[in-house]
Design goal:
The protein folds into 2 domains: about 160 residues, Rossmann fold (3-Layer(aba) Sandwich), CATH 3.40.50.1970; about 180 residues, Up-down Bundle (Dehydroquinate synthase-like, alpha domain). Helices cover about 45% and strands about 20% of the residues. It has 13 helices and 11 strands. The longest helix has 19 residues. The chain is globular.
């Protein structure tokens, strides 16, 4: 398995794609915002390198990660005669990477994929590791495939155009990686991103994405150690779905991390100091930890989570900063733990 992470400029994408493809077509897929900002630069670089370029843009937001948008893109590629020796570029944030990645995995049974993440969240998390997918009415990422890009191009210059809410959205995944990694990284990501310069943020992104690559390198299909990357996500995905995706992924994951730290303490997996350290960090970094839904609503939404098997769910619980544990428990026990933890919360 390879997942090549390049620190490079968007203007070099033409020469980079040339390493994997000689001539032919390249389809650039982006949401409307990113398309308007960066499509022309990407197109010019590819044109100079001798490629024929087609572009597809879709509406901004999680709701575009749908069956409808997915089918429209497949039809667009077919109508424009994209062939098996051609390729797709996912230019954008997490929604674009997941959606275009799933298109790449399934169109003509697989065409080359190049990921160019443009947000903190997509650089740290969603572009790394080969998970692609779309949402169904019943839940998040319920249709998808494991499909590796040829490369992931990280251009730190994208960070300068991001609004503060997008920096904040990606910060939750960085805090998650700090909890998984240990005290050194946890301390580094425990400051608000608006207090950091872009070079510092870029360095943290590189550290977090390389750590994720190391974790998935021995468990590509998410059957063992890779599952620890789901820390905070079972509850987080339920919150996203219940909100109609009005609550961002980062905000939802932060809420999930907060509740999971309480459950971990309540079940005696970690001491109170560990739980408090996580919640205090989330508070310091301006994450709202209030739960907008009841335990019963979250439990119902969790039933559609991919990690539910034979009426049991795999939860990632925290033992200490730097050590998490995969714990399988009956759904009824999870319901009781969630209800008790939320009743005891003092945020």
């Amino acid at each position: 398995m390879s997942n090549i992470l390049l620190s490079s400029s968007l203007d070099e994408i033409g020469s980079i794609v040339s390493r994997f493809q000689t001539g032919g077509k390249v389809a650039i897929i982006s949401d409307e915002n990113v398309y308007d900002l960066y499509y022309e630069r990407c197109r010019q670089s590819l044109d100079t390198a001798g490629f024929s370029i087609i572009g597809y843009k879709f509406k901004v937001g999680e709701k575009s990660k749908s069956v409808d948008t997915y089918i429209k893109i497949l039809e667009f590629l077919a109508q424009n005669k994209l062939g098996r020796s051609d390729s797709i570029i996912a230019l954008g944030g997490g929604v674009t990477g997941d959606l275009a990645g799933f298109v790449s995995a399934t169109y003509l049974r697989g065409v080359k994929l190049f990921q160019i993440p443009t947000t903190v969240l997509s650089m740290v998390d969603s572009s790394v590791g080969g998970k692609t997918g779309i949402n169904l009415e019943s839940g998040k990422n319920l249709a998808g495939a494991f499909y590796m890009p040829e490369i992931i191009l990280q251009d730190a210059n994208f960070l300068s155009t991001l609004p503060m809410k997008e920096l904040h959205n990606g910060h939750a995944e960085m805090i998650k990686m700090g909890i998984i990694s240990g005290e050194e990284l946890f301390k580094k990501v425990s400051e608000p991103l608006y207090n950091m310069d872009l070079n510092h943020i870029s360095t943290l992104i590189k550290t977090c994405s390389e750590l994720k690559m190391e974790i998935i390198s021995t468990d590509f299909h998410d059957e063992g150690r890779r599952q620890i990357l789901n820390l905070g996500h079972t509850i987080g995905h339920a919150i996203e779905k219940l909100s109609g995706y009005k609550i961002s992924h980062g905000e939802a994951v932060a809420k999930g991390l907060s509740v999971i730290s309480d459950i971990s303490e309540m079940m005696n997996y970690c001491i109170k100091d560990t739980s408090d350290a996580i919640k205090n960090t989330l508070k310091k970094c301006k994450f709202n930890q209030e739960m907008p839904f009841s335990a019963e609503e979250i439990s119902k939404a969790v039933r559609n989570d991919k990690k539910v098997r034979n009426d049991e769910i795999s939860l990632i619980l925290i033992e200490e900063i730097g050590r998490c544990k995969i714990v399988s428990m009956p759904l009824e026990e999870f319901d009781n733990c969630l209800r008790e933890a939320m009743n005891r919360r003092e945020i």
